[in-house]
Input
Amino acid sequence: MSLIQKLFSELENPALYGFVKSIHGHFYYTKTQNNLILPLLLPTRLQKENINVLVGDLVEIDFQNKNIKKVVSRLSELLRPKVANIDQALIVVSATNPEPEHLDRLLCHAGITLPEKPIICLTKIDLAPISAIFELYQSLGYTIITLNNTTGEGLENLIPLLENKMSVLAGASGVGKSSLLNSLSPNLRLKTGEVSHKSAKGTHTTRHTEIFEINKNQKTFYILDTPGFSRLNANCSMLEIAQSKAFPEIALATEKCKFIDCKHKFEEDCQIIFTQSRRSSYLKLLQEAEEWEKAQLESHKNKEEKTKTNFQTNIPLLTSSQRLVSRHTLKQAFEQTIEEDQDHFSRE
Output
């Protein structure tokens, strides 16, 4: 069961809800349980509450006014790209230029953020031999599907892994993401781009994030094609990086570490074994996470100091006459209390 299906199953009246398939301008194109696609608007009330609607969100629909009434709490969320309720990531890599460091980033990002382990899709196998580095990723437990987008070879191995899932395509431009979608559903006819001979980088063909519903080999699944999903979002802590969901090597030797919160850098008694390229990726991501944590701490301190300063400056200052009135009032109250006490004791 996908995350979207799980959210629908927990609703009292699913017919009043739908999930956002794409966003164009101010319109949120939402699919209902009756397979209607409605262009909805975000009302001013929700805009003032800073409600942020993402592709993949499950929303309650105001059918009369064609508005979004509320956003259901997300079960997963990616910040780059901004999408919600995703089950798994398909990391698309070209056999002609694998870029291990870039692959490690995407695997780490998806491993931390999404509930399912990412799948590596190796494309353009007709243009270059399969690199030996992928034996390493197989040994770490990653599923690798080799694909030929021209002939469709390999799709029969991928489709069962997509059934009843919401998957997001991730990878650099020009690795064959749009070609893969066209292979899965030729009627999409998505524009594809070649790698630039001048920069050796892919040209961007995807301009916006959209969920595609695909029926293939009697199986139904959803895939998001997203622009810009090519780097790890820096909003990760050091502890998140130093866990098996980010780097499976850690799970293979966790019991050998002396400390529970070991960062697996160069600590004594840490026996986590990385290859040279994987260690380089790990240390670089760990350093970025450390810098992000320091920036967060500094930002928190600055906010506290600003709040303290604002509080102090907002305290009203009493004039000399106000201070005299206050002293005089206190003196009168004290004298009145003494007189009342004396009257009380004299009556006794």
